[in-house]
Write a structure and sequence with these properties.
alpha+beta; three-stranded antiparallel sheet; 6 strands
Length: about 170
């Protein structure tokens, strides 16, 4: 016979934080970026495939199958994967820590204690500038890989978040 556990002894789970989503234009940026990359890849595959079919006509079916595979992969990536990836991303900032949630297949939540923050960068490539977006890059102490990125933020929001992170950072900076 088991004794009932008093309610005070049960662990209480902390409420899940409300994660801020990325800006909706981030999804369009990812889709446009991949569309450009796939168009370049498909053009290269078409040129190589035509050369192979000219030199070895029996391989025409295989060349067409490979080209169709990459077309289907492009459509799947742009229309299915990127919307799911967009919905998986989010961030939450409180006074002590920044939480970043991401991942479609392998989900992760990264915690960045604000006192460990070394410096914060905002980077914007040409397509990001066209879409009015920016990537926030936070660097911590450690190796060259000790940085965390939050892509797809509105450019003004990225600057506000950068200033807020710098103001909230600890006083143990190097």
């Amino acid at each position: 016979m088991t004794c009932p556990t008093p309610a005070a002894a049960l662990p209480v789970a902390a409420p899940a934080p409300d994660f801020q989503p990325l800006h909706p234009r981030a999804l369009r940026l990812w889709q446009v970026t991949d569309a450009i990359a796939y168009l370049i890849l498909l053009a290269f595959l078409l040129a190589a495939g035509l050369l192979v079919m000219w030199m070895r006509p029996p391989l025409a079916t295989s060349v067409i199958a490979v080209w169709l595979f990459f077309i289907l992969l492009a459509v799947w990536t742009i229309l299915y994967y990127h919307p799911r990836n967009y919905r998986a991303w989010g961030y939450h900032l409180d006074r002590r820590v920044l939480l970043i949630r991401k991942g479609v297949w392998f989900r992760s939540i990264k915690l960045l204690p604000l006192p460990r923050l070394q410096h914060v960068d905002v980077k914007r490539g040409p397509l990001q500038r066209h879409f009015g977006l920016a990537t926030l890059v936070m660097h911590t102490a450690g190796t060259h890989a000790a940085s965390i990125e939050v892509p797809g933020l509105d450019a003004d929001e990225a600057l506000r978040l950068r200033d807020r992170l710098v103001a909230a950072g600890g006083d143990d900076g190097v």
